[in-house]
Design brief:
29% helix, alpha+beta, globular, 3 domains, single chain, seven-stranded mixed beta sheet, six-stranded mixed beta sheet
Length: 585
């Protein structure tokens, strides 16, 4: 470890040199209250900013071990510290100092969701922040004075305000950690109480706008209130702001649940909350006590997606030209075949709750009414509609469904619970729907005459996971919010609704690369691959994903994805090839 004076001396010597001279400052430096690691210097001022770590020993940071006494509290605390650093950067107006990314200081911090991430790590010895800094230049000429201002003023100030307990917002930190711990404790009790999701009384579900995930605020905002028939109460590990240790709200039971109601009355808003609340949320989000089954997957139609050897015969059979639906392949799937494949793929890796909205579903996949059945005989219709499988999915496979349905009462016969949204308030209308079914029986006939088929374990061929492109052995990157570059292919992520931030996409891409090196060679099924990736997350945290970790020691831009989204990305790879022989589960 070098003294900070060595860094200042080196910067002085390279002033006005070419940008590559910045490489000379890579190293480990001692400052009065922290250690500075310059792990990787960017190649030019327009490149990805340089990777820096700031490490404060615990006797200086003085953060109570009680705040990270278990895995949930630990990732919540690390998330909070990352947000604190981001706010410090913003509030102190650290600004551009030259060309390109010069002067930028950045840390990967979350949005409304709270995820395990690599931006901050706390251990029994120290707390460490992984940040990125744009080293200043004009053109490609080094600006040492501006760099010294960053290293000897901005960064020490950031450490003082963000990594020392005495200067942190202690009340906010404690409340943040306790809120996340409460949410995860409720999530662990959902199955015990035989519910798929919980929505607390007082929750704010509407969002600020269609492009903002922040809560809608103001006097006219409607706070969620459970119907008495579905109300359930949880005891909390930590008290709420009002001092109470209990919370009540609506429990959506296992089984088949419909969300009905008129347009613009809150059906899709409720489902969207359930979709996003497979993750914990920050205090003040409005949905922090909306808790969904962590194995819940949002399913939709996805015209044009590629499908590789998926057994969709439970939903689609007898395609023209004898196309197999037991091992169905398509380079350009229809809405119905893609939706069928999405369901089967989710169940394949462990989904036990399906979330569906009729607005994003294929109409002919969801239901065929009696009149259409009369006109087009079932022998001439390959699609076996979801309405005829939804009960069997629950009774035979243990897979519950929460479905937004405003256009077809045929689902009343299949539902265990019917929730009517009216003016953003939920009402339990299960008994009313059952009476309607008796008074106005459906004229349609159930079309599935064969039992639900079992999934066929799928084994990805190792050649599917080639991350090279041209002369580059590994080419992985993000292309905006909706695409990831993996080797020579762009993978379309537009319709994977439960990816909530870019850092998850980064993790998924590197997890697939990890699988290509260590997992698929072992003849593992797709489920086996994603389960083993999850096991590595649990044992080794997300640091292991960085292929340059041993060299740079700065895997700072990863946040944890679920196995369902990892599998979904693999299933959308253009290169995916499935070999179904001798699977190891």
């Amino acid at each position: 470890m070098l003294d900070q004076s060595k860094l200042k001396q080196c910067l002085s010597q390279i002033n006005r040199s070419g940008y590559k001279a910045y490489k000379q400052i890579e190293g480990h430096y001692s400052f009065p209250d922290f250690e500075l690691f310059v792990d990787h210097v960017q190649g030019d001022p327009f490149a990805e900013p340089s990777k820096i770590r700031l490490r404060v020993q615990n006797e200086i940071a003085n953060i109570s071990t009680d705040l990270w006494s278990n895995s949930v509290r630990k990732f919540a605390l690390e998330d909070f510290i990352a947000r604190t650093i981001r706010d410090t950067i913003k509030n102190n107006a650290f600004q551009s100092r030259g060309t390109g990314k010069s002067g930028i200081i950045y840390i990967d911090a979350g949005g409304q969701e709270v995820l395990e991430r690599t931006a901050v790590e706390i251990t029994k010895n120290w707390v460490e922040a992984r940040i990125q800094v744009g080293l200043p230049a004009i053109g490609r000429t080094i600006l040492s004075n501006e760099a010294m201002d960053i290293f000897f003023q901005s960064i020490p100030n950031m450490v003082q305000l963000s990594l020392k307990w005495e200067n942190m917002d202690q009340v906010a930190c404690i409340q943040f950690v306790e809120c996340i711990e409460n949410q995860e404790a409720i999530r662990c009790q959902l199955n015990e109480k035989k519910i798929s999701a919980f929505v607390a009384n007082g929750a704010i579900l509407p969002r600020l706008s269609g492009i903002s995930d922040k809560p809608l605020l103001g006097d006219g905002v409607i706070h969620f209130l459970s119907p008495k028939e579905l109300e359930i109460t949880f005891e909390l590990l930590n008290p709420l702001a009002n001092g109470k240790n209990i919370i009540s709200g609506m429990g959506i039971p296992h089984g088949v649940s419909l969300i009905v109601g008129g347009g613009y009355h809150g059906k899709s808003t409720l489902l969207k909350s359930l979709e996003r609340c497979v993750y914990p949320h920050i205090p003040g989000d409005g949905r922090e006590y909306v808790i969904s089954n962590p194995n819940g997957v949002k399913i939709r139609a996805e015209d044009g997606r590629r499908i590789e050897k998926v057994n969709i015969s439970s939903f689609i059979t007898n395609l023209p030209q004898d196309v197999s639906t037991i091992s169905f392949c398509s380079e350009d799937a229809s809405g119905s075949t893609s939706q069928a494949a999405n369901i089967i793929e989710a169940i394949e890796v462990g989904c036990d709750l399906i979330l569906l909205d009729e607005d994003t579903s294929a109409a002919n996949f969801m239901v065929r009414d009696a009149r259409m059945q009369k006109l087009v005989h079932k022998d001439h219709e390959p699609i076996k509609p979801f309405v005829d499988r939804v009960r069997e999915l629950y009774e035979k496979k243990g897979v519950s469904t929460i479905l937004v349905m405003g256009g077809s009462g045929d689902y009343f016969d299949m539902a265990d619970t019917v929730i009517k949204m009216q003016d953003y308030y939920p009402h339990d209308v299960t008994k009313e729907a059952q009476k309607i079914s008796q008074v106005l029986p459906t004229q349609r006939q159930i079309e599935n005459l064969v039992p639900l088929t079992n999934n066929i374990p799928r084994i990805p061929n190792p050649s599917s996971f080639n991350a090279s492109k041209g002369r580059k052995r590994v080419k992985i990157g993000l292309k905006g919010r909706d695409k990831v570059l993996f080797g020579a292919q762009d993978i379309d992520l537009r319709y994977i609704d439960q990816i909530v931030e870019k850092s998850q996409i980064n993790s998924i891409a590197h997890a697939i690369y990890f699988a290509s090196k260590l997992l698929v060679r072992n003849n593992l099924t797709l489920k086996g691959i994603v389960d083993m990736i999850e096991s590595n997350f649990d044992k080794n945290n997300l640091d292991f994903l960085d292929p340059f970790h041993k060299r740079e020691k700065h895997p700072g831009n990863f946040s944890r994805p679920r196995k369902f989204e990892i599998a979904a990305v693999i299933n959308r790879m253009q290169s995916l090839a499935i070999d179904n022989e001798s699977p190891k589960c």
